[in-house]
Design brief:
single chain; five-stranded antiparallel beta sheet; alpha+beta; about 325 residues; 9 helices
């Protein structure tokens, strides 16, 4: 009941490496559109797609539900594949020769310069740092993705000895599968440090991996804080594909493995059109749990299952086809649920 009242909220999928998505669809002329829904792509951890139904025909409801499920699954795959790349990035960055020798550590040195190159080149990392096993910052980027200067000098006086990502990386407690290992992935959260530096509400995923010198000794931990906007952008793409097919009332919701909303993409209800107008409502984001609120699709999705169902939206008083997909990772990346 509580959930359906808030069903306008959605996840993406992802942001660590590494949620659920919901889309609601006007059912006018739906027969002409069902085929095209198969083409729609991709998001991360738990994805639920909702579709509005004005017809009560069982076959039509079943058909639309299946299409919503297909969109959710494809979206989840897209997000997870993106996060798989982030899983590998942090290990690759740590192979930079400038990370191997203390000669290149410190402010305005070669390692920091290399980090600036990664930040501007990839465009998705808000902060990238190398930290000693004891938690001392050895190097950090000093520009943003656009190359604009950032005030990160104060970080050289910070200590991250108690950071969970540092402790896990040193201990080898990686987010791993049978075929992939070496990176610690922590789920999306508000990043107070990045918010202070950028003056915004930075929402990031954490990817960390140990750095070793030529003798194989761990000399530090490289950590990347990836902007979760990369997942929100995928969510936006899914919505606009549906809108272009005549379904502007669609909703996309991304949940974490517990059912808490991470992305709430519902333009019609929230009064925006494109990603630039999307604002994170922290009365919902990282707070509203759709599973405990009783939303059927969310309750099933967090058990690791994918599927579809039809239900009446308690607040909007309409029938919805909800397609949902649970995170299974991608390409060996196990995901964070």
């Amino acid at each position: 009941e509580q959930k359906m009242k808030n069903v306008s909220s959605k996840p993406a999928s992802d942001s660590g490496s590494a949620p659920a998505s919901a889309v609601k669809v006007s059912f006018f002329n739906i027969q002409a559109k069902l085929a095209t829904l198969l083409v729609v792509f991709a998001i991360v951890p738990l994805l639920i797609i909702y579709g509005f139904l004005n017809y009560k025909t069982g076959d039509m409801e079943e058909s639309l539900g299946k299409q919503m499920q297909a969109i959710a699954s494809q979206s989840m795959s897209t997000i997870e594949r993106n996060l798989f790349e982030r899983y590998g990035d942090v290990q690759a960055f740590g192979l930079n020769l400038a990370a191997q020798s203390p000669t290149y550590w410190g402010k305005d040195n070669k390692l920091a310069e290399a980090m600036n190159g990664y930040v501007t080149g990839y465009g998705i990392y808000k902060l990238t740092m190398m930290v000693s096993p004891e938690g001392k910052v050895l190097a950090v980027n000093s520009v943003d993705a656009a190359g604009k200067a950032l005030n990160t000098d104060f970080l050289y006086n910070q200590n991250f000895a108690e950071a969970s990502w540092l402790r896990k990386a040193i201990a080898g407690d990686f987010t791993k599968s049978d075929s992939l290992s070496g990176t610690v992935v922590e789920d999306v959260s508000r990043n107070a440090l990045a918010s202070k530096i950028y003056g915004d509400d930075s929402f990031t995923m954490t990817f960390a991996a140990p750095v070793k010198n030529g003798a194989g000794k761990v000399t530090g931990v490289w950590v990347n804080f990836a902007d979760f906007g990369l997942v929100e952008e995928i969510t936006s793409t899914v919505y606009h594909e549906l809108k272009s097919e005549g379904m502007p009332n669609s909703e996309v919701t991304l949940l974490n493995k517990s059912g808490v909303v991470l992305v709430d993409y519902d333009p019609k209800a929230r009064g925006f059109d494109d990603l630039a107008g999307y604002k994170r409502d922290y009365n919902v984001i990282s707070k509203l749990n759709l599973a405990t609120a009783g939303v059927g699709a969310a309750k099933i999705a967090i058990t690791g299952k994918s599927g579809h169902m039809v239900a009446t939206h308690a607040r909007k008083k309409i029938k919805q086809a909800a397609g949902y997909a649970a995170s299974n990772g991608a390409l060996g990346y196990p995901g964070v649920g």
